[in-house]
């Protein structure tokens, strides 16, 4: 709703595209050409930046095929950025990437609630280059089924020689019993000599 109000109140950058898919077949003469199952897809994208650091985006789509026509919101977000932070409220976008340098603990295909495209919605907050700290926090709600996900990371850099960080992940299915999984990890990097860096990452899963 906030994104829609911004789009109405301020100058808008508008773009989009249309695609059509039409199939025709002819089995044998003198049968006429048979055109069947036409598909028309139209997507319109709206972008607005009412003030420095503030950005809104909204995408509306229409799909027409043999099953009829339907309109739906494709994706959208509202973000505010400063010199060291960014906060984004998003819907149906893949904004779940977190750096896991060795174990690759975050599989965005699973956490974005994918069903012919991302369906999750939530909020993401990022912090960088603040007294050597880098941090990310994400809280997300699934839309295709009842559940949510929480992701957080915190890294501290000590100059160019050493850094240490931690990651916390939780996915809750909201089912009976232990219907969630949590993962904790610690990772670090040290610069030894020239182009050589040593990294480590250890993780524990608590179900």
Q: Based on helices, strands and strand pairing, what is the structural class?
A: mainly beta
Per DSSP E runs of 2 or more residues, the count of β-strands stands at: 11
* Poorly predicted tracts of residues: none
Number of helices: 2
Strand content: over 45%
Rg computed from alpha carbons, rounded to a whole number of angstroms: 23 Å
What is the H/E order? HEEEEEHEEEEEE
- Note the gap between the termini: 37 Å
Percentage of helical residues? Answer: under 10%
Describe this structure in words.
By secondary structure, the chain is mainly beta. It has a domain at 1-50 and 62-73. Helix content is 6%, strand content 63%. It contains 2 helices and 11 strands. An 11-stranded antiparallel sheet has the order 1-2-3-4-5-6-7-8-9-10-11, with helices on one face. The longest helix is centred in the first third of the chain and has 8 residues, at 2-9. The radius of gyration is 23 Å and the shape is extended.
What would you say about this model in short?
With 207 residues, the chain is mainly β.
Sum up the structure in keywords:
mainly beta; extended; 6% helix; 11-stranded antiparallel β-sheet; 207 residues
